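Hi everyone,

Forwarding the result from last night's run.
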Amino acid sequence: MLPHVQATRFVVPLKEGGSLPGVVEASDDGTYVMKFRGAGQGLKVLVAEVLVGGLARRLGIRTPDLVVMDLPESIAKYEADEEVQDLLTASLGTNLGVDFLPGAFDYNGSRPAPEDEGAAILWLDALTANIDRTWRNPNLLVWHRTTWAIDHGASLYFHHSWPSKAPSPERFAAQRFDASDHVMLEHAVALPATHERLSPLVTREAIAEILADVPDEWIEPAVGHATPAEVRAVYADMLLARLATPEAWLPEAPR
């Protein structure tokens, strides 16, 4: 399981993010960017962060460490900003903490990622349908002269329809990925070889091990799948079905 810590001080909101994450100090003396359960699209974003972040690590993509962070009522009670206080109050209990990388700056291409690394990031985003890594919002940081992938919450769009629609691995497997504005599009020429290299690493066992880090209370039921164990299996079914049909979603190099 992910380490479990308690938030001890809310430092500052990061208002440039659409979901209003915040920098938080914790009981392990660490500093984290907290992703709130009460924000925007709720718990499913936290699940996507854990699952796709875990896959990234398996593929050799640098991404910050994660913790489960308990937010006590005392922190929310004394926040002066009303908007932030409302978010904190709606997020009491367990949230996701992402290790804060002090001094990191946004990726702008001035120090390009190596081809194998850039292609791996593009491949993972295409596999998980992450539309949120464009030049307008690269969700990449440069820290100690290396590239770090952050903010995977926009991945796995399919689970947001589960309360009303049954999961469809076939539909997800056939969904095209539009990489025309992706920050790593220049590495698309390497994607066939990248698929051959990385796809064997994405197994049902690997997905299950990653999803074991997700607290049961974050996993919301899907149509026909009520228990956390059943829903975890559905996530694996969806990803493995897509993995088997790269011709449907693997981006082509620009002409």
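The chain has two domains: 4-99, 105-249.

Cheers,
N.
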